Structures are given as structure tokens and as C-alpha cells.
Amino acid sequence: MAASSYTPANPESVFTYGAPQLKFGPGASDEIGYDLAQTGAERVLVVTDPGVAATGHPQRVADQMTAFGIEARVFDGAHVEPTDESMRHAVEWAREHGPWDAIVAVGGGSSIDTAKAVNLLTTNPGDLMDYINKPVGEGRAPVNPLHPLVAVPTTTGTGAESTTICVLDVLALKVKTGISHVRLRPTLAVVDPVLTRSQPAGVTAAAGMDILCHALESYTARPYTSYERKRPEQRVPYNGANPIGDMWSEKAMSLLAGSFRRSVHDGSDEAARTEMAMAATFAGLGFGNAGVHIPHANAYPIAGRVKGFHPDGYPADEPMIPHGMSVALTAPEAFRFTFDADPERHLRAARLLDPQAEQTRDPAEFLPAVLAALMRDIGIPGGIGAVGYDEGDVPDLVEGTMKQQRLLATAPRDVTEEDVAGIYTRSLSLW
Amino acid sequence: MAASSYTPANPESVFTYGAPQLKFGPGASDEIGYDLAQTGAERVLVVTDPGVAATGHPQRVADQMTAFGIEARVFDGAHVEPTDESMRHAVEWAREHGPWDAIVAVGGGSSIDTAKAVNLLTTNPGDLMDYINKPVGEGRAPVNPLHPLVAVPTTTGTGAESTTICVLDVLALKVKTGISHVRLRPTLAVVDPVLTRSQPAGVTAAAGMDILCHALESYTARPYTSYERKRPEQRVPYNGANPIGDMWSEKAMSLLAGSFRRSVHDGSDEAARTEMAMAATFAGLGFGNAGVHIPHANAYPIAGRVKGFHPDGYPADEPMIPHGMSVALTAPEAFRFTFDADPERHLRAARLLDPQAEQTRDPAEFLPAVLAALMRDIGIPGGIGAVGYDEGDVPDLVEGTMKQQRLLATAPRDVTEEDVAGIYTRSLSLW
């Protein structure tokens, strides 16, 4: 296990690994009716958002279930970037039209996370706020088992099909937070690359950077052995870097090396799309048990304080910085900052992501250089300056990052306000 | 995906992946009481065999549960190499002393497989024979869900903690067969390397060859894309070689390269034991979704027709050829036979297993040479001649192998009686 600046008195010796069952490949989404019939399900709720509903995939999945004697209804009111309000609306609808035996989410992370909340609150009593992480909510654990949840991602990025968390904005408090419990994890992930065919190049680029950062952040996370030994009741799904998370991350990075540029530049390249879907799944299976750190912590304020930026390939009706883009913008500088915690691991990651890249004279520059070259090639903006921030915004962004202590605690080094300010400042213009 | 001699008209495009949740590391077995309390369990059955019971681990696991309000009872009557008789005895005992809320298996593959049968038949009606694979049994699927099953392996080899099958001898028919259903898979695997400390060198060697063959056979198995497209109800847990199985297999082989010889030659090498436990788990997670082929098919008659062989490190009361040894004895020749189906993959496997080995002039010899060198170093007999078979036994062994069509169907080439006879004849004396 990697070197670390942490020296626990009684080091952790145990790590855990959990994952949904998986069905992967073109055509996999045609079999959901059969799979759910095996659980005895008779009434199934399909959760999606209006954009994905317009592709027809959610209704096709619902229709296909009737052959197995299942009555399926589509709820297409999931909000892209869910809020407490949008999730409560989904829960109320589901409670009113239930009971359900199983839930299917068809969509990106927003639909899958909304389905997790619906599953929780149609099987357990109370309100959203009872389960939201402390200090925003009560942080209660579910008392009842949840229904089977099938997650069918339609973007190649999120990883939400593998994770135990659902993320939402609490509007009144202007804070992004979540519900985190092992029972929220989908029971089955159905990854059908055919469903990602309609993804525009800009979405492939941004979502692909989310995949890449899932893999890189969990690969460079604080090793599980650098924590103090936990009691069983203290364990959380995010262990820090561990041998299984490392394996998924390495494989995801190799897949990205072969297919990321191709899938952005030629959306009709089926082989590249399938490899990107596989990379997304693998990275999800890794970070869901390891964790993410600085780039994801920075992504919250970068996306949340958006001014007037409108990215290619996304709906033009409101300004937004897509999640994967907001993660990517500070990644080169974040990994320059973490380099010293484990130089060998940073160099190996750079070589996995670009086996042809020439090593830089200063080894600490190698991974940042590989990332910047990739971001340029696939059309990611060249820093937070390019999406509308300037030096005067840095203190505000830093404040937003420092609220994400759950993520910063997974970084392989202690992270101070000054450190984060330096990362933001150097990320104003990356090239 | 690899080259193959199969050319399906409508190739499979989908593979599945399933696994238990995992808790890995020294001390992991101290937390089972907590983990089961989370499922609401109040009465738990611990299944083990007399040899493992004598180490005290099963009783310790049972005692530790009382702190969580769980009443746990140990059944130590699992038979090493379970039979229909031994499994029926276990089931009767469990039905008589139940009901149970959960089952814990502490031991090798025999205890874990016995626990799978007990779990099935304390949650579902009928007799063992109703569920045993056709044509020996009725091949029925369970109608009810099973209890949570925690598998705690005490040997580094079996992989039974990851798989959906339980293997047994049906005494009246003198045939080894099994029950195979996805619900048999343990819900949680607790892999605690501390429990393998008492394993003698001979057991580490034989069980390690089982790990190695799990990895190698699933890595060289017929690729999932070489099958005809299945309908969902035709899918089985064993997909053939697939990207996820490959990843686990490659990682398991790398771990074996670093620790197999060390763990046999120095049983007190904790780091090597931990890596062997990890290799066993990883190989199990791979082959449980890919499958095994010729060496495992040959292992059934090799072990089943044992004459007078007594291996080091095993009980001396009856002759036996340990499972891992019986798998290993024809492996070099089996992989010489499969070489042409995918030369690149066989060469890569040889390099993973021994990065220092010098490549042979004939590439088809490389993997067999690496395997034979390893087997010599760790004290595996030099062929089926060394465990008591001679040329006159070959037809009988071939007949036994040909009964394992379920396994032979996973081989990357068609396998005839003549092919198998050639493999056995050349395996009489390997060096």
C-alpha cells in the first residue's frame, strides 16, 4: 500500500467491498422485465427525467415488463441536479400511486439518485430531512429493507448505479448534501451502451472527465491502512484506496486511454462507446468503495456558483457547469498538489491514461500535463477562468470547498484553506 | 475479446457479474456478529467440519455474536468432500434445531458448500435430490428467498465463498454433481487471513494450485462472445471469459507470482499469506462468473478414483488426492492443448505468473513450462503417475472426464475423448 503522510497508532487492517449485480452489454436493457419477475415484482415504478423520457427508452423498458406480468408506470419528473423539492415531489407521487414492489431508474445520476430517495421513502417512514446527512438533516438509518432497485444509466459517467449515496441541493440552505447508506445501493446495474448513443460530444467529454476523476481520485485517495482501526459500526462504504478499488481504477484508466478521445470525436464509434460505458461502470465500482477527494470537493462550489456559462451539448435554457466539467477544471492542479503523497502512484496513473506521453522533466508535472493535454483535445475549457470565474471569486469558492469535509478527509494529504486557494488560483488558466 | 474456434450466427453481446459483499483483512472475522445484527438476525447456525472446529475459530465466531443479542449454535458435522448423505444429515439437524435467521459457514469449500445446501433446504421445501442438477436430480429452482449466508473461508483456495454452486458426491450413483442457482451465492464473504495461519505447507501448495487454475481456466475459457445470444431465462452464472473475469484473473495471477512460493516455503510469512488469501478471493470472484474447464473436469476422476496416495499435510486416515492437486496434475498439458485457441492470452498468463521466466522457443511450451517449474518448487507430484495411475487407467479417467460436459463446454476448443486421453497420457510423467 502506498506511502502516506498519515501515521495511525493502530492502523486499519480491514477493507470492505460492495457492488450491485451487473448486466452489461448491448441489449442488456431488454431483459429487465425478466430479471424483475424473478424477484416476484408485480408493480414497478420507472423513474426518469423529461429529457431521457423523450428518448423513449424509459417507456420501452416499462412496456417490455408487461410480457412478464408486471404493471410498470413511468414517473418522468426527476430533476436534473435534484433538489429537496424535486425529490419530495417524486416521493409524494410514488407514495400516492404505490405500493410498488421494485423501482427502475433510467437516466443519468439525477434519475438514479432520485430513485434511491423514492425507494428509501416508499419503504421507510418519515421525510427526506430525517435521512439527510448531519448536520443538515437527522442522518437516520432506514429501519426497513428497501425494494429491489435496478439502475439503468444512460450517460457514461455518473457511477451512481454502483454507489450508496444520493446527492441533492437543499434549496432553503443553498447547500449540496446527500443521503448515504449501504441500503441505497442499487441491487442490479443494467449497463446497455445502446442507451448512450444519443449522447452529444460535449456530454461525452464532460461525463468522461467525471469517469476519469472517479478513477484517479480513488486511486490517489488516502490508503485504507492510513486510518485508525475502525469498530464495525464506524465503517463507511468509502474505505480509502484499497486493492480492489485500485484494480477497478487502473482498468478504467486503461479503457479511457483507448477510447475517450475517439468517443468524443466520433459519436458513431460503437466500440469506443462500449468501452466508455465499461470505464464508467468500472470506475463506479472502484470509487464507490474507495472515495473521491479534492476535484470532487471543488466541483460543488464551481457548479453551484455558476454565473453565465452555457456548455455545448446541454440544454441552453439556464446557465450551468456540467458536473464532470466542474470536477475536471481543478483536477490538474489538485493532482500536482497531491503528488508528494505517493509519487509512484501519480506517475503510474499518468502512464495508464496516456501510454505514449513523454514524461516531463519534473515528475510532479507529468499527470497534470497528461490531464491538460486530454482536456484540450476533447474541448474542456482551459480553467475556471474560461467558465466565468476570476481571482476575486477564489475566497468564495474556497469557502464552498471547505464545507465538503467528508470528501477532503479522503485526500492523501491534509488540505488547508491556503492549499485550496492555491489550487483555484493556479486553475484560473490551465494553458 | 480473444480469438476462438467458435463462430456463432448471432453472437452473445451481454455478460453478467455477481458477487457477495466482501470484508477482507486480518480481524475481519471479529465483526460477524455486528454484520448479522444489521440483518435483524437473532438465531444463527454456524456450519463447520470437525477439523476446523478443532481450531476453535467457529466457536469463537459463535461466541462473539452473543454480544449482539444473537443466539448462535455450531454444527460441526460437515463432511470433507460432502456427500448426499452428509448433506442430508446436516439439513436434518438444521431443520430439527431451527428455525434460523442466518447461516455462517466457517471452513473450506466443504463447509461452505454444506452451508449452501442447509440454507436452501431450511428455506425451501423438498429434498436435496429435487434441486440437484439434471440428470442426476430434478434441477428445481428454489421458490423462496434464502437466508443471509456469511462464508468465512479458512483455506486459501476454494473460492466457494463467491460461487453459486455446491458440489457433492451422490454415493449410490458414484457421481460427483452439484446444485447450481444464483440464490446459493453467499451474501457476505469474510476473508480473514488470520484463520489460514494453521494451514500446513502441503495444503497451501495444493489449495494454491486450485487458485491458480481458477484464474487460468477462467482467463482461457471460451469467450462470452463466442456463444449464441441467450434469452434471459437461459443465462447461467458462468458466462465464459469476459472483461471483468479477466481483470480478477490477471490480478490473482500477479498476486500468486509474488507470494505463492513464499507462502509454501515459509508459513509464517504473514504478508504472503494475506496475498494468497487475496488471490483466492479474487480468483473466486473471477471464475464464479466465467467458469473453469479441462483441468477441473479432469480433477473429478483423478480425485474420485484415488488408489493409495497419501499427501503431506492432510489427515492420514484415508487415501486422497486433494482437490487442488488433482486439478494441477493435468494443467500443464491441458494448457498446451488449449494454446492454439488464443496464443496471446496463454503467453500473457505465463508472464503474469512468472515475470522472470525465460520464454521457450516453442511458444506453446511457455505456459506448461512455467506451471511445471512452479509445481516442482512447491512439491506437487510430477504427474498422475506419481499419485498412483498408469497407462492402463487412462480410459477410465477419460470416461470420468467426459461426464463433466458442463465444464468441458467452457473450454476454448472442442474436446474429444482422444484429446482428453492425450492430455492424461502426457500427464503421466510431467518431468
TrEMBL record, chains A, B:
Alcohol dehydrogenase iron-type/glycerol dehydrogenase GldA domain residues are 21-193
Keyword field contains Transit peptide? yes
Which CDD domains does this entry report, sorted A to Z?
HOT
Reactions catalysed, as given in the entry: (S)-3-hydroxybutanoate + 2-oxoglutarate = (R)-2-hydroxyglutarate + acetoacetate; 4-hydroxybutanoate + 2-oxoglutarate = (R)-2-hydroxyglutarate + succinate semialdehyde
The main enzyme category here is oxidoreductase
- Provide the transmembrane region boundaries: none
EC code(s) of this entry: 1.1.99.24
Give residue ranges for domain Fe-containing alcohol dehydrogenase-like C-terminal.
240-427
Q: Name one GO molecular function term.
A: metal ion binding
Keywords of the record, alphabetical order, are: Oxidoreductase, Transit peptide
Q: Hey, which family's this protein in?
A: Belongs to the iron-containing alcohol dehydrogenase family. Hydroxyacid-oxoacid transhydrogenase subfamily.
Quote the protein name from its UniProt record.
hydroxyacid-oxoacid transhydrogenase
